[in-house]
C-alpha cells in the first residue's frame, strides 16, 4: 500500500525558497520506483511539476525548470522538492505522488496515480 505524507509548505514572499518533504512507503516495485510532485489550484487541472525515476532520471515542467530541484533519499524514504526563486504563480496545493515507472514524466497527463493530502504553498508579491 502506497502511503505519502507531505510537509514543508507555507507562505513566502516572491523570490524566496521553500523545501517540501514527502515521507513515502510502499512505492517500490521490483526495485523500481517513480515519485514526483504535482500542484493544483482550485478549478484547474493538476500540473505535474517534477518527477524522479529510480534510474536517476528527472523531469521538470518548463515553468519550474532551473528553479525547482527534486531529490530522493532512499535511506530515509523521503522525497524532496527544493523550490527557489518562488513566484506568485507557484501558489498552489502541492501533492507528493507515486506513479508507474513506465510513465515517469511530467509530460504524462495523468501523473500521480497515488498521492498524499497535499501541502499549501503561498507566494506573495
Largest sheet: 7 strands, mixed
Number of helices: 0
Radius of gyration: 13 Å
Q: Return the average pLDDT rounded to an integer.
A: 96
Distance between the termini: 40 Å
- Reading the helices and strands in chain order gives EEEEEEEEEEE
Quantity of strands, as a count: 11
How would you describe the shape? globular
Main structural class? mainly beta
- The percent range for helix content is under 10%
Give unreliable regions as ranges. Answer: none
Share in β-strands: over 45%
Q: Any descriptors?
A:
125 residues; 7-stranded mixed sheet; globular
Structural notes for this entry:
With 125 residues, this protein is mainly beta. It is built from no helices and 11 strands. Strands 2, 4, 5, 6, 9, 10 and 11 form a 7-stranded mixed β-sheet that branches. Strands 1-3-8-7 form a 4-stranded antiparallel β-sheet, with no helix packed on it. A hairpin with a 4-residue loop joins strand 7 (68-73) and strand 8. The radius of gyration is 13 Å and the shape is globular. The relative contact order is 0.31.
